[in-house]
Amino acid sequence: MKLLEIHIYGFGKFIDFHLTGLDSFVAIYGENEAGKSTLMAFIQAVLFGFPTRQQAELRYEPKTHDAYGGRLVLQTEKAGIVTVERVRGKAAGDVTVTFADGRIGGEAQLAEMLGGLNKTMFQSIYSFNLLGLQEIRKLKGNDISRYLFAAGTIGTDALLHAEETLQKEMEARFKPNGRKPLLNESLQNLRNREKELNGLKAQNSRYEQLKASQAALEKEQAQIRADLETFRQSLQKVLHDIKIWPLFAKRQQLAQLLAKAGPVKFPVDGLQRMDRLAEQKRSIGSRLTARNRQKQALLQKIKEIEPDPLLEQNSGPIEQLLEEWPQYQQRQAELDRLQFECEALQEQIERLSRMLNLDEESAARVCSLDLSVAAKEKLRLAVHEYERIKTEQQTYRARLKELEDRVHAIEQQCSRLENDFVSEEEFRGLAEKQQQYGKKLEAEAALEKEQKRIELLRRMNTASKQSSAQMLVLAVILLLIGGFGLFAHQYLFLALSVLALAVAGWFYFKKRNTAPLEQELLAITREAEEKSRRLQNWEEDRGALQAYEQQKQLREKWKQLILQLEGYQQQARDIQNRQKFLLAKERNGREALDRLKENFALHRDFQAGQLMDAFELLVDLSGQVRKRVGIRQKLAQLGSMQSAYQEKMAQLWSTLQVRWPLLQEGILSLKKALSAHQERKVLYHEWQNKLLEIEEQENLLQIEKQTIDSEMDQLLHLAGVKDEEAFREAGRNWQIYEQQKNQLAILDTQLKGEDLDGLASRHNADELKQEQLALEKKIDEQSEKLQEINRSLAEVNYEIARLEEGGTFTEKLHQFYSARSVFQEDAREWAKLALAKELLSRMMARLRETRFPQVLKMAGTYLNFLTDGMYLSLHLYEGDRFYVKRKDGVLFSANELSQATAEQLYISLRLSLAEALGAEYPCLLAIDDGFVNFDLKRTGKMARLLQQISKNRQVLLFTCHPHLLDLLKGTHVIRIENGRLTEEKKAGL
């Protein structure tokens, strides 16, 4: 898959951004925040969908534009050139895939085109940046080997993290010798519950006997309840039979009547069908009469209408001439308009010729002049250059006058300042007084510093005295404690108090030795007082200080004015030199304009500012002359067409043997005659068709009448009668028979089949009453027996409850089953985790045995090239440990390599994995500044390696380092800045 074109409607800072003609190796350069990461995110978003608002990834929705999304043009092996467009819509955006053959698809077609490649796989294998390299810097020891192994198998360490997570989850649930994991605690709890339950069972012999009695009584209780339910159901059945006995008796009576009458023969809905057929027969008769009258009237009208044969023979030429008549009128109007336009053009040509001071012959030759865009641009540039020189001369003259005024003003200011200067000897005396004043300020600062030090020493002395008082109080307390220990014979307290008293005494005498501190304080205080007296006796001249500052400011201002004066004088000299140069350019520009006037046949009196207007007038005049030639050609062509039409019209009039002297009147008469002929012809055909239609309707009505007679005869035959009156009498008898059948059917719906079977064996309702009384007696007897069993069962339950000591046995039994259920649930969760870890391990082993050897071999080749033959090959041993073989045969583990070499090993594995999956997923490579830690030599090697890889798959390299572009000779380089394309070229050119 190769990316040919990128068009961003709106994505982040990119608005209407377009890249076309992308090569197999493209370097996209831009400084920080230029939009490289945004462009990389756009490619992923179009292929795999915009991130949803719930995801942590940025959506890059534009802040100042409504458009969101864009399209990519891809070159694929199977589908050819495909355009993928994704815009704002549902969460991931609405995608449209347009194939080379015109087919249009959506997400399903895009996924099929990508061959199952998703966003996670793309980021893990075909897209990498500094993040992977930063992960290597964070790892230590064997973690580096495991990370590199993951990079060479699936492109990411997600499976390794998953395996570690599963192992931690399993250990949190169970350890063979652990006690705190959940499964270990559940197993110990289950064992304790089982031990308590077995202890209660040993004391339960009486309990088992009572439980057996309880079971026997409950069984007998259930049997009696079943018998009661059977008797009650039988009673309900008897009561139901008593209720439906009247319906059963009525049904038996109706069945006897129907059997006596026997079956009645009559067609279904016979009376309604007979009435309907009779009505249809009367309607058809009246319709036949009406059709016969219409037929006679049409025959009379057809005889009165006949088309004109002469007009019928010439109808084609007539229609053609009538159709061409509007065109004839349009051509005539066009002739008049063109004639008027030609006269107007002649007036405009004469007016323009006068404005340009051209005669008629010169105006006709204007079309041969070079009035192209290039000639106009040449004239415009010459005029612009000449006017620019004139304007620049005026500007420099004004600037020179302004500089002369400023120089004069500055010279006057300098003269006034020099008048205010004192002599140099007096100025040096003022400077010495200023130096004396500076020494006084330094003495005041030193005095202030010593006063702060005196204050600090005083605070330290006071704190020392307070500490001595506290030590004295502490010593008194310790003496009291020692006296108590001696009195109470607690010698340990006595020894501790004596020791603490000795330590406190040592600190007390040490703190009281403050003589050196007080001596230092006294010396510093005397020195400060001496400095203070000297400062108080210091005499200073305030007026001299102010005079010195004023003179100093005057001299500084005079120096600045002198510098300005020199700068203005230099600018004036530069302007004078520039004016000489512009004067020569003005002469050259005037000569160039004179040559252009001669080329355009213009008079030399035209000023430079008028030349562009004169050129526009020449262009207008040339266009008018060409337009006049075209109009004259059209006039000749239209006149020929009008003459041909008039000849055809005269020939038609001769054929029709009529005289129409005027063309307009002849066309109107011809149109009227043809219209009347067409109307008669259309009316004649309509009446002929109407006559055929009436005849067909008459035949259909005759057939329908015969069909009705046949149906009526069939109904009489089905009823077994010969005339209509007998048919209607048989129908009334059939209706009475059907009513009785319907009543019997209604009773059959009210009485079920089992009801009929049960009542058929009964003789009368009294038999059912006697059976009801017998069942009620049995129910009363069984109810009394059930009450007796319930009392016995209650006594047994009371004994069982008393033996269970308030439910202890039941509670322990419930606790045991509950603990066993918890243990089984925890065991199932642990088994799921163990199964998942086993499947994950098998998959990693399969990858190590199938894919990884190929990746390892290719990665070794890449690493050998990048390190210039320093490292020859890669090897993987048990425990996913990487070893790199140096050219001297020494093996190094991954954590023994330098940081840069480990990163080169990581990139080699990623590139080799992409190559190994090339046949399955022919996707492009996107790299974002993955080589910033390489030295210049290995960076050059990496550039050559990517150029070699780009022969088989497209490589997009995003970078912010300009030195990397110097190593990519001949590579397609795109420079972007703030979301815009600033330059596009080949590197090294």
Residue windows where pLDDT falls under 50 for at least 5 positions: 136-144
Q: How many beta-strand segments?
A: 15
Quick one: overall form? Answer: flat
User: Beta-strand level of the residues, as a percent range?
Assistant: 5-15%
Going across the major beta sheet, what is the strand order? 2-1-4-5-6-7
What labels would you give this structure?
989 residues; alpha/beta; flat
Task: Give the helix/strand layout.
Elements: E1 2-11, E2 14-19, E3 25-29, H1 36-48, E4 69-76, E5 80-87, E6 94-98, E7 104-105, H2 107-114, H3 119-126, E8 127-129, H4 130-138, H5 142-153, H6 158-173, H7 182-201, H8 205-261, H9 270-304, H10 309-313, H11 315-356, H12 360-364, H13 373-420, H14 424-487, H15 491-512, H16 515-536, H17 542-599, H18 611-656, H19 663-719, H20 724-750, H21 753-760, H22 765-803, H23 808-849, H24 851-866, E9 871-877, E10 881-886, E11 891-893, H25 899-916, E12 925-928, H26 936-949, E13 955-959, H27 962-965, E14 972-977, E15 980-986
Parallel strand pairs: 3-13, 3-14, 8-12, 12-13
Antiparallel strand pairs: 1-2, 1-4, 4-5, 5-6, 6-7, 9-10, 10-11, 14-15
Helix pairs in contact: 4-25, 5-25, 6-23, 7-23, 8-20, 8-22, 9-19, 11-18, 11-19, 13-17, 14-15, 14-16, 14-17, 24-25
